[in-house]
Amino acid sequence: MTTGKTAPRRLSIFGSTGSIGRNTLNVVEHLGGRDNFEISVLTGNGNVELLARQAKASGARLAVTASDRHYESLKSALSGSGIAVASGKSGLMEAADREADWVMAAIVGTAGLAPTLAAARRGADIALANKECLVSAGDLFLKSIREGGGKLLPVDSEHNAIFQVLEESQRHAVERVILTASGGPFRTASLKEMADVTVETARAHPNWSMGLKISIDSASMFNKALEMIEARHLFGLAPEQIEVILHPQSIIHSMVGYTDGSVLAQLGAPDMRTAIGYALSFPRRPNLPIERLDFARLARLDFEAPDEVRFPALRLARLAMTRGGVQGAVLNGAKEVALQAFIEGRLSFLAMADITERVMDDLAHLPPAAGMDDVFSADSQARQRASELMKLDLVG
Ligand code: NAD
Ligand code: MG
């Protein structure tokens, strides 16, 4: 007979100060906090004050700021707390090296790639919010997970929904997955209206509260483009098995269609804590204070086909999947540079897709990646080419 309490699960949260990171700490608190979990590492970037507060409140062992400039202020904010402090790229790798049973990968963008891969290789279960890992590194990332022996738990709401309704024993009978998309703030806007939208209107997502970059990617549907590529790798699908349908209420988070004509869907309030809680408690379901759906009040759910003329990102995702190789890394790298330029007012909203497509065409000759160096090289070539094109002012 065993009487001792089981050891708490050790969690690390990469990107704890972001939207997903804060929701993760909230879920951890709801599921027993320090009674059930030990926080190994928290990482942030410039928001040192929040990171220090989170680290103290959760009893984290190590706090890492991705920015060396903020090392001293993080150190002084945590002095006397006994919490270790690190910074920069080496600090993120130290974070990945620390013992953890479960890692939330919620750093935004390509910056999340190296630490998430390292944590996967160490064998932690990876709760994956950072879709860029799969978009850029695809099969190489999956290989790291296999080699480490941990589980890959999708957190992106669409992929988490598919994960919830995909019957493992019936994988051979999966005909298609249907990713839902809210359509964002410009679902009904004309091309002319979309030509001069601002960051403020683009960031105002109708249903989800998210970080700045993913909010703008949702408005351009680049987020859905990344999610198509993410789904291809996660669920081993051919490009033609991945469909996108606009569903403005964001109640159905995604669906799986089977060979008998059945379609299974996962529904819920648009609250990322459901997906995070499922990834944390898998295969059990946690008890969480998420708003319950009231179908009588909802009354209806709407669907429309997406318009690939106003939202060319969807077409670019198909192009990247068909071309294969490092085109996912190229699409993502070019898009990140174009997105940053849009945020800084140097590029128009619609030109983000023009730049990305030109870079994809210019780098279509790159060979498939033999290792991660090839992925990072494709990413940096895409960034450089995107910057050159913007300097040439060929599009705007
Ligand atoms: P966010 O901008 O709110 O937070 C990003 C986090 O990454 C912060 O902790 C920030 O400090 C950190 N960070 C920023 N730049 C960094 C750098 N250069 N190096 C290391 N860390 C850095 O973003 P978010 O909305 O929480 O999204 C995080 C990830 O999850 C993204 O990949 C996003 O696509 C994905 N995701 C988010 C949502 C959502 O609802 N927010 C849903 C699905 C997927
Ligand atoms: Mg999503």
The computed structural class is: alpha/beta
Give me the oligomer status: single chain
> How many individual domains?
2
State the fourth-level CATH superfamily of the largest domain: RNA polymerase sigma factor, region 2, helix turn helix motif
- Pattern of helices and strands: EHEHEHEHEHEHEHEHHHHEEEHHHHHH
The count of β-strands is 11
Beta-strand fraction estimate: 5-15%
Keywords: Isomerase, Isoprene biosynthesis, Magnesium, Manganese, Metal-binding, NADP, Oxidoreductase
Cofactor: Mg(2+); Mn(2+)
Pfam family, one: DXP_reductoisom
Binding site for 1-deoxy-D-xylulose 5-phosphate: 131, 157-158, 182, 205, 218, 223-224, 227
Descriptive account of the structure:
This protein is α/β, with parallel strands linked by helices. It has 2 domains: 146 residues, NAD(P)-binding Rossmann-like Domain (Rossmann fold, 3-Layer(aba) Sandwich), CATH 3.40.50; 207 residues, Rna Polymerase Sigma Factor, Chain: A. The chain has 17 helices and 11 strands. The strands form 2 sheets. It has a 7-stranded parallel sheet with strand order 4-3-2-1-5-6-7, with helices on both faces. Strands 9-8-10-11 form a 4-stranded mixed sheet, covered by helices on one side. α3 links the parallel β3 and β4. α11 runs parallel beside α14. The protein is globular. The N and C termini lie far apart (71 Å). The mean pLDDT is 96. It binds nicotinamide-adenine-dinucleotide and magnesium ion. The site of nicotinamide-adenine-dinucleotide has 26 residues, from α1 and α10. The site of nicotinamide-adenine-dinucleotide (NAD) has 26 residues, from α1 and α10.
